[in-house]
């Protein structure tokens, strides 16, 4: 049976106070399209509990945007998997390109965070993608295969199938500073990379894990282009930044994806 698509809203450090309330009022969590997908909202830490409360009894799930790999201790400003699971989180984004670029997160750090998330039964959404220079130099395949191997280091096969991969070419993210005008990748070339990711997962684990693992695409996805990504065989969902800040545009992304899937 075909798995439900994963549609992830990454609000980043956007929306505050009443804006969150308005988003929740406007987004129809009971829309039939929502129940045909796994819709995950990733707000700032301070709104996780509110979102988790709101999501109860709906088709929505809640994800954090980061975590620290230790479970407790003197790590001022950090948050652990143990704390996230306690407040009702099911997912956590790790290794988003902004964290890699602005906060110096390496593949080793991302791997430690993914392992810690899995230990607490949080499903990590591991993000990676090539930068513009790597793409122009024809390095995409090598970069992607290396990222899969490094980011999945020591993750057991029973856990690997719970991981979500978000392939996000850095030059395609709408707020990217790498290029003058970021544009979404073409669905066809994103499909080629997704297929390569699945093949690499099959080599690391086996065909069953590769079939089960969810691979989402991220980078300037909105309601006008999401259907063309949804039509691709190895694109199991999308991670949406800019177009998730407005409830109505995110709702359209969900409906369009589900319709085309
Ligand atoms: C992102 O930053 O992960 C992202 C996909 O953003 P956007 O949809 O705005 O390109």
- Tell how many strands the DSSP assignment holds: 8
How many individual helices? Answer: 13
What class would the helix/strand composition place it in? alpha/beta
Distance between the termini: 13 Å
Q: What topology, given as strand order, has the largest sheet?
A: 1-2-3-4-5-6-7-8
Would you kindly provide a written description of the structure presented here, covering whatever features stand out?
The protein is of the alpha/beta class and about 260 residues long. It has a single domain (about 5-260), classed as TIM Barrel (Alpha-Beta Barrel). It contains 13 helices and eight strands. The protein has an eight-stranded parallel beta barrel, surrounded by five helices. β3 (about 60-65), α4 and β4 form a beta-alpha-beta unit. α8 (about 140-150) packs across α10 (about 185-205). It is globular and about 45 Å long. The chain starts with 5 loop residues before the first strand and ends with a helix. The structure holds phosphoenolpyruvate. The site of phosphoenolpyruvate has 14 residues, from β8.
């Amino acid at each position: 049976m075909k798995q439900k698509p994963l549609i992830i809203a990454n609000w980043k450090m956007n929306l505050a106070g009443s804006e969150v309330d308005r988003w929740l009022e406007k987004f129809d969590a009971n829309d039939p399209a929502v129940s045909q997908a796994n819709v995950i909202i990733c707000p700032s830490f301070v709104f996780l509990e509110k979102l988790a409360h709101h999501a109860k009894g709906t088709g929505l799930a809640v994800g954090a945007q980061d975590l620290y790999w230790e479970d407790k201790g003197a790590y001022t400003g950090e948050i652990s998997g143990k704390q996230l699971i306690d407040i009702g989180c099911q997912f956590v984004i790790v290794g988003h390109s902004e964290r890699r670029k602005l906060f110096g997160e390496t593949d080793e750090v991302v791997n430690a965070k993914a392992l810690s998330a899995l230990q607490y039964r949080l499903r990590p959404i591991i993000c990676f993608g090539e930068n513009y220079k790597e793409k122009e130099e024809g390095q995409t395949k090598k970069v992607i295969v290396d990222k899969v191997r490094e980011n999945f280091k020591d993750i057991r096969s029973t856990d690997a199938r719970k991981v979500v991969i978000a392939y996000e070419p850095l030059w395609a993210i709408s707020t990217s500073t790498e290029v003058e005008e970021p544009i979404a990748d073409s669905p066809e070339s994103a499909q080629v990379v997704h297929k390569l990711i699945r093949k690499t997962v099959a080599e690391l684990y086996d065909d069953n894990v590769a079939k089960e693992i969810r691979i989402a695409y991220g980078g300037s996805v909105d309601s006008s282009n999401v259907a063309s990504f949804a039509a691709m065989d190895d694109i199991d969902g999308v991670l949406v930044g800019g177009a998730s800040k407005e409830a109505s545009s995110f709702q359209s992304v969900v409906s369009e994806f589900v319709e085309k899937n």
